[in-house]
Design brief:
By secondary structure, the protein is mainly beta. The chain is built from 1 helix and 37 strands. A hairpin with a 3-residue loop joins β16 (214-226) and β17.
């Protein structure tokens, strides 16, 4: 999970590779780099009207849909034997670090390859983020630990200082530090263990968000990646020194109920204008990240999601919805509405969309039935998305999805979903090797890799008892690649 700060030299596409962006498994409207690995999204910022994202290379976008890859290699000359792990980027508007106003500064974990020690370092940019220079007095924060990583840094306006949240991974804690200049850090508090504390905590993120869209009422959200496989979050208050959760004894709250979503962060807004809160995550887990069957590189970032915080009978909950700009990729709309017969109902028009489509469905929940979709079907393989109206269980089964040989890939995910006014809504984004499913207008999300073959393009509806009405609309999605 390396953050490598980057050179913003425009990458030239390889003219000899006519199949670039058309490779097997390559998503067509999720961001992937031309040729390289990407892991945790790092240094997500909005600055000068552009959204920037870093990890082993850089990409920028003005609409969160059409991405321009800036480079595919590292820029900071790291000392011999030191590697750069996950971190964040800030814009030093007030020149607190002494490099000038509006200087981009990366704060990241430096890893000593001999001792295995993890500490926090900085690098600064004198060319608006095009290149970064390693600070010669690094590390700036060192507790002599091998499990101390992945800092997120934010500006605390009330106290006029920087705040860092950083993981003490195997202690299942997040530590809070403050600094006047990004170079000298003072410990304030630790949070945790709490919620899901089975194996590890890492990649923390901290942000403030309006409650029910009310700008006069805000809460803080702390996100933590857990167990190298998923993310939990806490809603509460941050008083400048410590985080206080609203529901300290509640069951864990997860950002994604699928099989592959990790290390997400929000875009920090350094433009002096209001903006929605957007996030992206890594569509992967460490069980098979290194063995993905892709040839162009490894790693996929999720579709950008908008966060909102809403009141529910169970307390405040994060909702996630795909960013509105994705609608610009839609082709001609296909509609379907009927009460299903028991058995299989082909969706011929959707099958012709070639596993690059958006599909919105409304399932009217009445009598006992199991209803759902066979997606990416062909050659004896498929992904099954089903809803049991009796138990209220949504299940995603990819145990027989891929033609690739991948250890630990065959899995099933499931969670409880209650109808809203008698209806369960599903918004599915199918994109070659990945699927993201938004449930009930973002109440929950399920993300998963599929790595299906090029012949697995069929889509069908099914009903066990023939008791359920389904309405759906589908759109082929245009590619974002040149």
């Amino acid at each position: 999970m390396l953050l490598v700060t980057l050179s913003a030299l425009s990458q030239e596409l390889n003219s000899d590779s006519q199949e670039l962006y058309r490779e097997k498994y390559r998503p067509q409207y999720h961001y992937t780099p031309a040729h390289r690995w990407i892991g945790d999204p790092c240094g997500l910022i909005k600055f000068n009207g552009k959204y920037l994202a870093y990890c082993w290379g850089a990409a920028e976008t003005t609409d969160l849909v059409h991405w321009k890859e800036l480079n595919n290699h590292a820029i900071t000359q790291m000392p011999k034997g030191i590697a750069a792990f996950t971190g964040s980027v800030v814009i030093d508007r007030r020149n607190t670090a002494g490099y000038g106003e509006n200087t981009p500064i990366a704060v990241f974990t430096s890893f000593d390859e001999v001792s295995k020690k993890q500490s926090q370092s900085i690098a600064f940019s004198l060319d608006q983020g095009a290149t970064f220079q390693y600070y010669d007095l690094n590390p700036v924060l060192d507790i002599w630990s091998t499990e101390f990583r992945d800092p997120t840094v934010i500006w605390d306006e009330q106290n006029q200082r920087w705040v860092m949240v950083v993981a003490k991974a195997l202690e299942k804690k997040v530590a809070f530090y403050h600094s006047p200049d990004l170079k000298q850090w003072t410990w304030m508090s630790d949070f945790g263990p709490m919620g899901d504390q089975e194996r590890s905590w890492e990649c923390p993120d901290l942000f403030q968000i309006c409650v029910n869209g009310n700008p006069e009422l805000k809460k803080w959200v702390l996100v933590v990646s857990v167990n190298w496989a998923r993310e939990q979050y806490f809603v509460g208050d941050f008083d400048g020194e410590k985080f206080i959760p609203d529901q300290p004894n509640a069951a864990p709250l997860y950002l994604d109920e699928g099989l592959d979503y990790y290390a997400s962060r929000v875009f920090q807004n350094f433009d002096n204008e209001p903006d929605k809160i957007y996030t992206i995550g890594w569509v992967n887990t460490w069980d098979y990240a290194n063995t993905a069957p892709t040839t162009y590189g490894k790693g996929i970032w999720s579709l950008p999601r908008e966060y909102t915080l809403r009141s529910t009978p169970r307390g405040l909950r994060l909702y996630q919805t795909p960013c509105e700009a994705l609608k610009s990729l839609r082709g001609d709309q296909y509609n379907f509405s009927r009460r299903l017969k028991a058995g299989i109902t082909p969706l011929t028009a959707v099958s012709k969309m070639g596993n690059t489509y958006e599909l919105q469905a409304k399932i009217e929940v009445g009598e006992a039935d199991v209803v759902g979709f066979h997606l990416c079907q062909g050659e004896g393989r498929k992904v099954v998305v089903s809803y049991d109206t009796s138990s209220g269980t949504l299940q995603i089964d990819r145990t027989h999805a891929t033609d690739a040989k991948m250890d630990k890939f065959s899995r099933i995910a499931h969670h409880k979903v209650s109808p809203v006014d008698g209806v369960v809504k599903l918004q599915l984004f199918v994109d070659k090797s990945t699927i993201e499913i938004f449930v009930n207008d973002g109440e929950s999300v399920c993300s998963l890799l599929t790595f299906v073959s090029t012949e697995q393009t069929d889509a069908t509806l099914f009903s066990l008892m023939g008791k359920t009405k389904v309405e759906l609309s589908a759109w082929p999605m245009n590619t974002i690649w040149p």
